Amino acid sequence: MAPPMSASRFLDALKDEGVTVVEVGDWRHHNRNHKGPWGPVHGVMIHHTATSGSQRTVEICRDGYASLPGPLCHGVITKDGHVHLVGYGRANHAGLGDDDVLRAVIAEKALPADNEANTDGNRHFYGFECENRGNGEDPWPDAQLDAIERVSAAICRHHGWTHRSVIGHLEWQPGKIDPKGFTMKTMRERIEERLK
Ligand SMILES: [Zn+2]
């Protein structure tokens, strides 16, 4: 449990971890804070966008849709491994998820199955949307997986969290399948190794 980093600290943490960052517009002040609280933060959530085309994907994640206004995450990780910062603060990425999962993330224990949607995740998770069609066939380039590993490790390092504080949307909200194409178990092992 921790207050969120400042936007400047967040930016520095990513850069210190070797992430290639692209700042998009007034990302520091683009958020949904008027709709609810942001923090305390407990973890990092990874998503796929189910889109194709890097520029279009970044635009969608910044602006959102009429039914789901942006920002839809904090950073968009495109296939080239660049991390496009589109918002900071409360973002529409996690939705409602399972309070048992949140408790496990806070305790950094093994995750239970997500079978309830009763808890506001946008308040408690940093979120990264990754450019991928999400069909299980669209490849995940090494540069993109490396960036997922680095952004996650950067945040965990700042907050003193372990790899267990990083989850996929599919582990949070019943019915979600993202990210699809690699496993969160494998990604957590990579993050654990990086944090050693
Ligand atoms: Zn998602």
TrEMBL record:
Signal peptide: none annotated. Transmembrane segments: none annotated. Residues 27-180 form the N-acetylmuramoyl-L-alanine amidase domain. It holds the Pfam family Amidase_2. CDD domains: PGRP. Gene3D superfamilies: Peptidoglycan recognition protein-like. SMART domains: Ami_2. SUPFAM superfamilies: N-acetylmuramoyl-L-alanine amidase-like. This is N-acetylmuramoyl-L-alanine amidase. It comes from Streptomyces rectiviolaceus. The lineage of its organism: Bacteria, Bacillati, Actinomycetota, Actinomycetes, Kitasatosporales.
